[in-house]
Specification:
A hairpin with a 2-residue loop joins β14 (336-341) and β15. The radius of gyration is 23 Å and the shape is elongated. By secondary structure, it is of the alpha/beta class. Helices cover 43% and strands 18% of the residues. α3 packs parallel to α4 (116-128), α5 (144-150) packs antiparallel against α6 and α10 runs parallel beside α12 (354-366). The strands form three sheets. The chain has an eight-stranded parallel β-sheet. A five-stranded mixed β-sheet has the order 11-12-13-14-15. A two-stranded antiparallel sheet has the order 1-2. It contains twelve helices and 15 strands. Bound molecules: iron/sulfur cluster (SF4). Iron/sulfur cluster binds at residues 271-274, 276-277, 313-315, 318-319, 322.
Length: 368
């Protein structure tokens, strides 16, 4: 049983971060951010995949206009309604304009936007509009005095930089803060968060940055994010990958599910296959996993307490028995699949209908 670290609760649009709320999954728009249609389409894809919060790099004032346009769209079409974060470096005016445009959260490091007046103006508008600020520290963002003190981006240096930036905001009575300390080095990222978790009560956004490809990056993030979550640390996650942002969302959800932190939901039990396997269990299990995501999202949104285990097994001889703890499932045959419930055979179904039958059975139980 994981006991979550106690933190302040911070609202990002409709999403609540920290304070014992469910751990939210984030991703970030990447290429093609200058094409509004592509942004719109990606927002829909991300939302359907289960993403809770989308971050956009706000590089210039044209990008600020996209925030307003997306918020207008969201007001009339809920497919576009998702919590938006403006990622801003150095230019405090972009932060002010993003706040006016209706952004839900701003990621900016007060330490790199200049004078106290500028920090105060950002803190003031965010306070007035109830927009939280996420401080995002990484090896490349360390203040020169901290880097000089530690000699390199050590975990202590990363945590100290986070505290330094927190204090810059607290000085102006701003405490709607979420903090991230990231590194591409898994151990450093873990250690930095362990230190920071002891030093503040703000929710933590966790992830391994510049983690690499969908394969290696996932392994690094699973270890980094997973180690912290298992200790109860982490309130929102991003699995940074050199891949489609939608993949980041799928993998983030999978990490949460593997630790039982995605809420009670659906679990697939699938056999590793062996010489007795009569079908392509691998592609069926993968297809089922993808097509279950919108149903799982509905369960989560409706705060339903549902636990379903679905089995995809390679052979009828051992499959139903091996998957005894499943509520229902299929087992591969030469021509048809056996559909079974609680280990007992129900009927034979055509192979091309296998995933449909499993989804229909799921929908019946979920009943949303
Ligand atoms: Fe092998 Fe059948 Fe067991 Fe799958 S269910 S591992 S195919 S014996």
């Amino acid at each position: 049983m994981i006991t979550r670290r106690k933190t302040k609760e911070i609202a990002v649009g409709d999403i609540k971060i920290g304070g014992g709320n469910k751990i939210s999954v984030q991703s970030m728009l990447n290429a093609n951010q200058d094409n509004f249609d592509k942004i719109k389409n990606k927002i829909i894809e991300l939302k359907q995949a289960g993403c809770d919060i989308v971050r956009m790099a706000i590089v210039d004032f044209e990008h600020v206009k996209y925030i307003a346009k997306l918020k207008e769209l969201a007001a009339i079409d809920k497919n576009y309604d998702i919590a938006l974060v403006a990622d801003i470096h150095f230019n405090y005016k972009l932060a002010l304009e993003s706040a006016h445009a209706g952004i839900d959260k701003i990621r900016i490091n007060p330490g790199n936007i200049g004078s106290g007046d500028k920090v105060k103006s950002v803190a003031d508008i965010c306070k007035a509009k109830k927009i939280p600020i996420r401080i995002g520290v990484n090896g490349g963002s360390l203040e020169s005095q901290i880097l000089k003190k530690y000699g390199s981006p050590t975990p202590e240096a990363l945590a100290e930089s986070a505290i330094y930036n927190i204090k810059l905001l607290e000085k102006y009575d701003f405490t709607d803060i979420i903090v991230a300390v990231k590194s591409s080095d898994v151990d450093k990222m873990i250690q930095a968060n362990l230190i920071l978790a002891e030093m503040c009560e703000y929710p933590l956004h966790i992830g391994v940055t510049e983690a690499g490809t969908a394969h290696m990056g996932l392994i690094k993030n699973s270890i980094g994010i997973g180690s912290l979550l298992q200790r109860g640390i982490g309130d929102t996650i991003r699995v940074s990958l050199t891949a489609d942002p939608v993949t980041e969302v799928y993998e983030g959800i999978s990490i949460l599910k593997s630790l039982g932190l995605y809420g009670k939901s659906i679990e697939i039990i699938s056999c590793p296959t062996c010489g007795r396997c009569k079908t392509d269990t691998i592609s069926i299990a993968n297809e089922l996993e993808k097509r279950l995501i919108p149903i799982e999202k509905k369960i989560r949104e409706n705060k339903k307490d549902i636990k379903i285990k679905i089995a995809v097994m390679g052979c009828v001889v051992n499959g139903p028995g091996e998957a005894r703890e499943a509520d229902f499932g299929i087992a591969g045959g030469t021509e048809k699949f056996l559909f079974f419930k609680n280990g007992e055979p129900v009927e034979k179904i055509p192979k091309n209908k296998a995933v449909d039958v499993l989804l229909e059975e799921t929908e019946k139980i979920v009943n949303l």
